[in-house]
Amino acid sequence: MAIRVLLVDDQPLLRTGFRMILEAEGDLAVVGEAGDGLQAIDQVRALQPDVVLMDIRMPRMDGVEATRQITGPGRDGPAKVLVLTTFDLDEYVVEALRAGASGFLLKDAPANELVQAIRVVAAGEAMLAPSITRRLLDKYADHLPSGEEAVPDALHTLTDREVEVLKLVARGLSNAEIAADLFVSETTVKTHVGHVLTKLGLRDRVQAAVYAYESGLVRPGAQ
């Protein structure tokens, strides 16, 4: 079945361009468009898309708040949010990731990257490398805990190995790199990552990386 995509951007010409790119792919279907966050929320309820291509800065309601309402606690729908931004390192992107976005993409990314990102997000993965998440979080370290705060109770539900895996995810390692570091198979790493996401109530690796920073488990700039 085709991946159902909702386009959200306040510029009609951009939406038209994205539609042309996506509809040229046999496995992608644009099911609707929205010009601001409020419309996006209504369209998600009505159309049940798999992926929402979400602009950040829009009138009435921005993409961060719309993302929060679409993917936040108590939202059991299938929609995953892929944020579009004009700027490589934008504080709004960090907020969007915290709000529940599965990743971000620059608006001037090549068409093949856009298509691949949507496929990856639809499959339940994060479309950006954890190293990019780390770079964003390092840049906005002032917004994160100092590390002197108490460790969240949820972290105590993880095994020692799962904590190790979470730290490595947050520090930018791929499954293959984590497997090599811990001398285990990639399948084992995937299992550990799955357990971490389930126990902490997270959607994907991006949220896991954000959680690791926000909880103080990983320090901005730490190696």
From TrEMBL:
One Pfam family of this chain: GerE
Swiss-Prot/TrEMBL GO biological process terms: phosphorelay signal transduction system; regulation of DNA-templated transcription
Keyword Lipoprotein part of the UniProt annotation: no
KW Transcription regulation (keyword) present: yes
InterPro entries named in the record: CheY-like_superfamily, NreC/VraR/RcsB-like_REC, Sig_transdc_resp-reg_C-effctor, Sig_transdc_resp-reg_receiver, Tscrpt_reg_LuxR_C, WalR-like
GO-annotated molecular function: DNA binding
Segments forming domain HTH luxR-type: 151-216
Sites bearing 4-aspartylphosphate, chain numbering: D55
Domain named Response regulatory: residues: 4-122
Protein keywords: DNA-binding, Phosphoprotein, Transcription, Transcription regulation
PROSITE patterns: HTH_LUXR_1, HTH_LUXR_2, RESPONSE_REGULATORY
Protein name: DNA-binding NarL/FixJ family response regulator
Species of provenance: Streptomyces fulvorobeus
